Fold this sequence. Notes:
Blueprint: H1 9-37, H2 40-50, H3 53-75, H4 87-108, H5 114-120, H6 124-136, H7 142-161, H8 169-190, H9 198-220, H10 231-256, H11 261-268, H12 271-284, H13 290-309, H14 320-328
Amino acid sequence: MPPREGHPRPRIATDSARQRRAFQIGVALAIANTIIGAAQPALTRWGAVNLDPLLFCTGAVVIAAGCSVVAMLKRGELHLLFDPRWRVRLCAMAMVGTVATSLTLTFGFTRLSAIAGTILLQTEPVYSLILATIVVGERPSWRQLLATATILLGIASVFAGAPSAFSPAWAVVLVFSTPFFWQSSHVMGLRMMPPLTPINITAGRMTYAAIALLLMLLVTRPATVAQLFDLRAAAVIIGTGFFVYFMSALTWYGAINRLSLAWTTALVVPGVPLLSILCAVAFLGENATRREIIGVLIAITGVLALVLGADAHRKHPATHAEEIEAAEAIHQPLN
């Protein structure tokens, strides 16, 4: 019997509702990620100055890995971490997105203030746009390119007015390169979602990174483990591991699984520097200069322009039906 006229309409309506729901969840996760991410510079600066830097980042990643493993056990999906189809890619993503970034950020903050580091981290949307264009195939508009130039102008204006805040050079290079590694790992994660889910990606990234960092710590600085007996230090490491590493990664991958990578980055980044500066002032006693605030506001203007110049929806390489089929191949049936 031939299909009745108008038969596809319920399917179209269902797809539209599903896309709208995914957008709403993605935005909520991005906002949560913004709030969590704002604490990272202040917490990392404290850990880098008051503890051995390698111990601090290793401890935080081990806590995040433990949370991830528990979540995977409850879902009955722990075997996916060691599945031959994914383990090499998960390990590579962990080395780039967690091991490299933890080391560059923590050791960079041994010499840079949290406010200076926050300003340097505003390059993340630039890296995101470049990688999204090259790897994911998201094409930038002229508006996005102008916005990117505005972000760089904001950072350069702070540097020109207070070059002493951005020294030594090696610390600047470490922090400046951190967003590149973050965004590279995000692209790797995107190419595995689906069929993997955000918790699978988070668990793989944290577990393999924890193994690498723990081995590095035990081989090179085993004596520093004694610092964990300080209750304050242990509390900061646990809080950083759970919120800044575990929950931040989980909310981030949940957001970019539903939204465009460049758009999500542009949505998250504007709120982070202002909240980060407040955290640095409140918890570390740092003071932001007028030039630093102006530079951050210029960078934020560029970031906001990126939000307006990008499509919020993620570009999937497959149809929705194919995604569900691929996801159900290794997960419980999707609701």
